[in-house]
Amino acid sequence: MAKDNSAIENVLKYIKENKIEFIDMKFMDFPGQWQHITVPVSEFDASSFENGYGFDGSSMRGWKAIHESDMLIIPDPTTMFYDLFIQAPTLSLICDVYEPATKEKYSRCPRNIAQKAEAYVKSTGLADTVYYGPEAEFFVFDDVRFDSTQNSSFYFVDSIEGRWNSGREENPNLGYKPRYKEGYFPVPPTDALMDLRNEMVQNLIKSGIHVEAQHHEVASGGQCEIDLRFAPLLKAADQLLMFKYIVKNTAKKNNRTVTYMPKPIFGDNGSGMHVHTSLWKDGKPLFAGNGYAGLSEMALYFIGGLLKHAPSILAFTNPTTNSYKRLVPGFEAPVNLAYSSRNRSASIRIPMYSASPKAKRVEFRCPDPSSNPYLGFSAILMAGLDGIINRIDPGDPLEKDIYDMEPEELKHVPSTPGSLGEALKCLADDHEYLLKGDVFTEDVIETWIKYKTEKEIKPMALQPHPYEFNLYYDC
After folding, report:
1. How does DSSP assign 309-356, residue by residue?
2. Mind listing the pLDDT tens digit for each residue in 382-405?
3. Residue 2 pLDDT more than 90?
4. For residue range 27-69, what is the model confidence (pLDDT) as tens digits?
5. Which terminus of the chain faces fewer neighbouring Cβ atoms within 10 Å, N or C?
């Protein structure tokens, strides 16, 4: 393990100057949730960055068996941020997961996979940096209730903004509630979440995250978006987890709740996470050129790889059964595997806002914010690199509004998988490109498929759905 001594010194200096009392160490489990362990500052010093802290790996989803459960987390000193949501002065650090016997990084640690993906880019000689700019949409609700028992199942979400509340007695009901699919960019008072989003942005900036913009999104009922500045793969994934943590906790402080669930509301737009990607080398952008939409040959081959492998990529970028309730026609969801400039009905878009070569990038519109960003970003990169290495032709761009195309025209346009089960089957059949450079391993692929099948797909298949009572109770 190479130690960044200057970064370690910065952490120790910060602790002393800011009278930090606790160190909170956050790390990622296999499916994609942050976990943490906290130690008093008296139990933390320079040796912590080498010796780490032990924990029970068998209690983490998708990880160790109980007979081999001891594991280590070791903090990365370059990731420190002051935790605004803990009462005592607390410094947070993001950690890597290690095997205690060998001090090697754990193969199923998602952050390790992202680190290997960045190393693989450099090993190819094609580029030295891959940038990501994720746009994670989310819903802000005022109330949420749900339960599933042997004899009942229900969910209920509510928002002061929900169009479904236009007739509710609110003493008084002032009527400013975005119409379905018309929540994009209204000013207050229709946008009732302006102050809350500003507070979220303030907290993000205080935590060292570069925010570019915030706005209301298309759906009624509190859909929002906050855009972050692009960053290299690992940092972008770290910041996305910080982003979700800060946004959720800011909402909670205001007695509201945030969800990144892709489709929490029926009949309106779901939450996507459009991912902007570009490759650079020696400080120069590699995706700008004289080809279609100002793209380089490399960028077009990158798109070719994305389109070829998209069905298997979605097993990581759209990893929940709920993800495929968003990926349906009619709600701006990119269900057709095609590319185009400016066209938001295509799964891959080339933004045309700026003529600067530095702004030239590829936007993959399929992913959603339920994904584990370390795995999702790595899978996107590996598919794109496979396209470059094997010179995969993306075919012709599709300039039409795909949603208005005739069925006969659409016959030749591939579509995204229709369910998580289909995406996992695609991953089982197509993952050789992920194994290059040992970025993903067969064990990671097999464990991911098994976990998702056993813990999510099978239980969902067995659970009666409330709507089935509408359809079948009187049969």
Report:
1. HHHHHHHHHS-STTHHHHSSTTTT---B--EEES-TTSSEEE--S---
2. 999 999 999 999 998 987 766 666
3. no
4. 999 988 999 999 999 999 999 999 999 988 888 888 866 556 7
5. C
Asked if 240 and 138 count as a contact pair (C-beta separation under 8 A), the reply is: no
Q: Give the pair of three-digit tokens for residue 258.
A: 């945030």
Cis amide linkage into residue 189, ω under 30° from 0: yes
The closest alpha carbon to 216, from 246, 245, 202, 196, belongs to 196
Residues 6+ apart with CB under 8 A from 195: none
CB within 8 Å of 289: residues ≥ 6 apart: 295, 296, 297, 298, 299
pLDDT digits (tens, 9 = 90+) for 59-111: 888 886 655 678 899 999 999 999 999 999 999 999 999 998 888 999 999 99
Question: How far is it, in rounded angstroms, from Cα 196 to Cα 251?
Answer: 7
Q: How far is residue 151 from each of residues 291, 421, 470, measured CA to CA in Å?
A: 59, 26, 16
HEC states along 141-202? ECEEEEEECCCCEEEEEECCCCHHHCCCCCCCCCCCCCCCCCCCCCCCCCCCCHHHHHHHHH
- Residue 153 corresponds to which tokens in the numbers above? 């199942």
Structure tokens at 262: 């892709």
User: Cα(322)–Cα(337) distance, rounded to whole angstroms?
Assistant: 20
pTM of the model: 0.95
Residue keyed to tokens 């999702």? 376
**Cβ within 8 Å of residue 444, ≥6 positions away:** 107, 108, 113
Do 205 and 241 touch, CB atoms closer than 8 A? no
| Sign of the CA dihedral with 259 first, then 364, 203, and 44 last | positive
Q: What is the pLDDT of residue 403?
A: 64
Question: How many angstroms separate the most distant Cα atoms in the chain?
Answer: 71
How distant, in Å, are the alpha carbons of 108, 127, 169, 387 from that of 434?
14, 18, 54, 12
pLDDT tens-place string over residues 259-298: 999 999 999 999 999 999 999 999 999 999 999 999 999 9
Q: Which residues contact 171 (CB under 8 A, 6 or more apart)?
A: none
pLDDT tens for 443-471 read 999 999 999 999 999 999 999 999 999 99
Which residues make Cβ contacts (< 8 Å) with residue 3, sequence separation at least 6?
A: 49, 50
Could you give the C-alpha distances from 343 to 5, 272, 403, 423, in angstroms and in order? 47, 16, 11, 24
Catalytic residues: 56, 135, 137, 217, 225, 274, 344, 363, 365
Type of residue found at 366: C
